[in-house]
Amino acid sequence: MSGTGTSTKVKTPTKQGPPNLKLVCALLSVIAGIAIALIPPPDGLSVQAMHALGIMLGAILFWVFNILPEHVTGILMCTLWVIVGAVPFQKAFAAYSTDTPWLLIPAFAIGIAAQKAGLLKRVALNVMKVFPPTFKGQTLALLSAGTIISPAIPSVTAKAVFASQLTKAIGDRMEYEEKSAGAAGLYAAMYQGFVTMFPLFLTAGIFSIIMRSCLPTEIQAQFTWVNWLWSALPWGIAVFIGSYLAIQFLYKPEQKQELSKEYFITQLKELGPMNRDEKIIAVIVACCLLLWMTEKIHHLTAAQVALLALVALFVFKILSTSDFRTKIPWEMIVFIGGVMALGSVITFLEIDTWMGTVLGPVITPLIGNMFIFAPLLAIAIYLIRFVLVAQSSTVMIFTVMLTPFALQVGVNPWIVGLIILTSANVWTVKYQNTTHIAAMSATGNEFIKQSQAAKMSIAYMLINIIAIVVSLPWWKMLGLIP
C-alpha cells in the first residue's frame, strides 16, 4: 500500500520477513512501546502523553517491520489510545470527520470511472500523437501526457498501470528489445510523467492530499488547488526538464528507431468515437478542475466539489454500487484516517510543545537555513525509505513531527511537507515503491530490469534536490520562508 492508493487488481507484494523474524520484531516493538509508556513523564509532558507516545512508537515499529496490514495497525493505535485513557474516542478518531477522506473517496471514484470508460487512454493518445515519433519525441510525449493527465486522477498506481501497458505497446512498435536502453528510457519517461510529477498538483496523487491533511488547519486553508500549483511550479518545471535530460543521457538507444506516424491514428480509430460515459466523465472532470481552480470565488472546498462529482457519477450510472463497494481502496481510507490522528493527538497532549522545547535548539537552527536544511532533509528521507517502506507513513509521520519546528522559525510547514512528499517517492530497490511494482507487473516484469529503473530513481534523487534548492528563492518571494 505504500505507493498504491488504487483499485487496480495488479498484485503488489510488500517486503515480508520470515514468520519467526516477524514475531521477534513484533515482540520488540511492543516492549519498546511499553518501555516508553512507563517512563516517568519529564517536565512538560503528562502521564497520558507518555502512554500515547509509547503506543505511537509501537505502531511506527509495526509499520516499519510490516507486522500487520497498515490499516489494522492504524486502527489498533487509535483504539489503544482510548483504552489507556490517553485521549477521548472523539479525538483519537477525529480524522474521519475531516474533509480528507471525503476528498479521497470521490477522487478514487473519478479515477476508476475514467479508466473503466477508456478516457485515460484516449487523452494520452491524443497528447502523444502531436510529438515526433522518435525516442526523444516519445519520451517527451510520455512526460507531457502524464503531467497533463495527473491533476484529474489521484491514483498514481492506476495511472502507472495503464500507462506502463501503453508504453510497452509503443516500445514493441518501435522494435525495442525488452530490457534494452530504449525500452528502459520509455518506461522511465512514463514513470516520471504519470507518477513522479504528482506533487505538482494537489489532486494528482493521494499523498499530496495526505500531506496537506497533516498541516495545521489554517495552513490547509491557505493551499487551495491553485495556490498549491503556483507554489510548487518551479519544482515541477525543474523536475520535468531534469527528467527529460537524464533520460536522454542514461537511456540513449543504440540504434535510432521511429514509431510509425500512423500508430496513434490507428489506435484512436480502434477506440472509435467518444462514448456516452467518456463524454460525461470528461465533463465531470473538467468541471472539477474548473471549480478547484476557482475555489476563492465560489468558496466550495475541494472535498465538496469532489462529492458533487461522486453523486454525478451515480446519477448518470457511470459508477455502479458494485464498483463503489469493491474498487475503492477502503483499507487505504481507514489507514489514512488512523495515521492522520497522529497530528491531532500530538497537539492535544501538547507533545509538540515539549518537542519544540527539547529538540528546538538542535533542529530550529537547521530549519532556519533552508539552503542547508532542505537538501539534508531530502537525503534523510531517501535513507529512511530503505527502512520505512510505507510511503504514506513516511509522509505523515515526518510532516507532523517537523511542522512545529518550521512554525517556530517562520517557515511555512507546507515547504517541509513538500520536501518530504517529493523525497519519499523513490524506487531504488523494488520493495520501496508498490506503484513501481504494479507498473512493472503490468508489463509482465520483462519490459525492463530493476537495475535500469534504479538508475532513474537515483537520478531523480539528485534532480529533486536541485529542484527544491531552485525553488527556495520563489518560496521566499511568496513569503513561505523568511
Automatic annotation (TrEMBL):
Subcellular location: Membrane
Record bears the keyword Calcium: no
Membrane topology: Multi-pass membrane protein
Gene Ontology CC annotations of this record: membrane
Protein keywords: Membrane, Transmembrane, Transmembrane helix
Pfam families (alphabetical): Na_sulph_symp (PF00939)
Membrane among keywords: yes
Transmembrane segments: 21-39, 45-65, 72-89, 101-119, 184-210, 230-251, 300-320, 332-351, 363-384, 396-421, 457-475
Protein origin, superkingdom: Bacteria
GO molecular function: transmembrane transporter activity
PANTHER family: DICARBOXYLATE TRANSPORTER 2.1, CHLOROPLASTIC
Family: Belongs to the SLC13A/DASS transporter (TC 2.A.47) family. DIT1 subfamily.
Protein name: Di-/tricarboxylate transporter
Organism: Desulfoscipio gibsoniae DSM 7213
